[in-house]
């Protein structure tokens, strides 16, 4: 349970840094890229917190981000629509990690506000269940 608390704290810290950048309406290329980088580490912190939550609280051991998102739906941490958005978010995160493409960066940045909201709700729900 201590590890879960650490993971949730890490996710909350990461989301605080992401929040600073997702509200910028006309970002410079540097701000956009920084926001995408923060999205990457925020996503990592959140899915790993959810993985730990599922293991510690629900007794479910899942190893992949998509599996964790699907299992989060099964234990009512995410709705069906949020799960669909979450799976789309994983695809975007995977693309940011492996390639850099200007058009893709613009597309992902445009999605960051909704991704931030989803990640925030996900972590808040885990916090609430503890």
UniProtKB/TrEMBL annotation:
* A Pfam family: NTase_sub_bind
Q: Gene3D superfamilies, alphabetically?
A: Nucleotidyltransferases domain 2
Taxonomically, which superkingdom? Bacteria
Please name the source species: Oceanobacillus longus
Q: What is this protein called?
A: HI0074 family nucleotidyltransferase substrate-binding subunit
């Amino acid at each position: 349970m201590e590890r879960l608390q650490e993971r949730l704290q890490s996710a909350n810290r990461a989301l605080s840094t992401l929040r600073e950048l997702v509200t910028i309406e006309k970002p410079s290329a540097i701000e956009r890229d920084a926001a995408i980088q923060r999205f990457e580490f925020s996503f990592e912190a959140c899915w790993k917190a959810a993985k730990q939550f599922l293991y510690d609280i629900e007794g479910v051991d899942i190893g992949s981000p998509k599996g964790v998102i699907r299992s989060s739906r099964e234990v009512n941490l995410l709705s069906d629509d949020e799960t669909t958005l979450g799976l789309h978010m994983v695809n975007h995160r995977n693309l940011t990690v492996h390639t850099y493409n200007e058009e893709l960066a613009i597309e992902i940045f445009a999605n960051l506000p909704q991704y931030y909201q989803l990640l925030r709700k996900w972590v808040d729900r885990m916090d609430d269940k503890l």
